[in-house]
Amino acid sequence: MAKKKSAKENTVEEKLRALYRLQLIDAAIDKIRTVRGELPLEVEDLQDEIEGLQTRSNNLQTELEDLEHKVSDRKNAIIESSDMIKKYEEQQKNVRNNREFDSISKEIEYQTLEIQLSEKRMKEFEALIVQKKEVMTTAEEGLNERKKDLDHKKKELDSIVKETEKEEKALVKASEEAADSIEERLLSAYKRIRGSVKNGLAVVPVERGSSGGSFIKIPPQRQLDIAARKKIITDEHSGRILVDAELAAEEGDKIKELTNKAVVA
Fold it and tell me: Which of 55, 146, 172, 241 is 20–30 Å from 207 (CA)?
């Protein structure tokens, strides 16, 4: 049984094919994830916003309960002061001198002022309660709207994920397998180039005499060298690894077959 060649033993053409195959697979994965667009971030932002709105709603509820307690406390204070006034009025009927009468009168006056103050505070608290309830209603409406938005976005995201899940899993597995067949030095260069360009294309074909990355004309002799597949050549303008159009087409057909199987499976 023939021994399997290591990545280092592969010919230059095999290395180029492996690199371009990996590029096509990763580009397909990128496309799937691009279809999802900003939905995952939108879902996350909505979840954060809902959490903030829920906290605000809880705080408003706590403030409302606090105000209601204050109203209750003032009502109790009025009852206590009223009871005290009745008590003092009974005592006034049995005073022995003007001094005692005046002293009790001052207590009655004080308790009357306390009642007036409590009534004033009650009105203020009740007005605040009305305001808080209005704010709470608005906050609850906003919270419910955001929850509906989140539910809609989640369903939209789940639908897209479900549609592409099989294909993405197959491609991710294929990407890992393709990466394993490439020597570390080339794989590191591929990842570095891919991470430095906006469209993630580290390996591109020569199309109509130009680099697929920069679209700048490539000299005829250099095109022949690329087509010969005897050495790895990079675009001097973009730094991308170049492959010839025929190799690109052959590998492209293989990836199409892979994705079609994943969709049907």
Answer: 172
Statement: 39-163 belongs to CATH 1.10.287.1490: yes
> In this predicted model, what pLDDT tens digit does every residue of 73-110 receive, in sequence order?
999 999 999 999 999 999 998 888 999 999 999 999 99
Question: Residues 22-61: pLDDT tens digits?
Answer: 999 999 999 888 878 788 889 999 999 999 999 999 999 9
Length of the chain: 265
CA dist 43 and 49 (Å) reads: 10
Spans of all domains in the chain:
7-36+174-264, 39-163
The residues, any chain, with a CB within 8 Å of residue 206's CB and separated by 6 or more, are 212, 218, 223, 226, 242, 243, 244, 245
C-alpha to C-alpha distance for 157 and 166, rounded to whole angstroms: 15
Say if residues 20 and 248 touch (Cβ distance below 8 Å): yes
What whole-number percentage of the chain has pLDDT above 90? Answer: 69
Residues 6+ apart with CB under 8 A from 24: 251, 252, 255
Q: Which two tokens stand for residue 45?
A: 């932002």
Predicted structure pTM score: 0.58
Give me the amino acid identity at 256: K
User: Rounded to 5 degrees, what angle do the CA atoms 5, 9, 15 make?
Assistant: 100
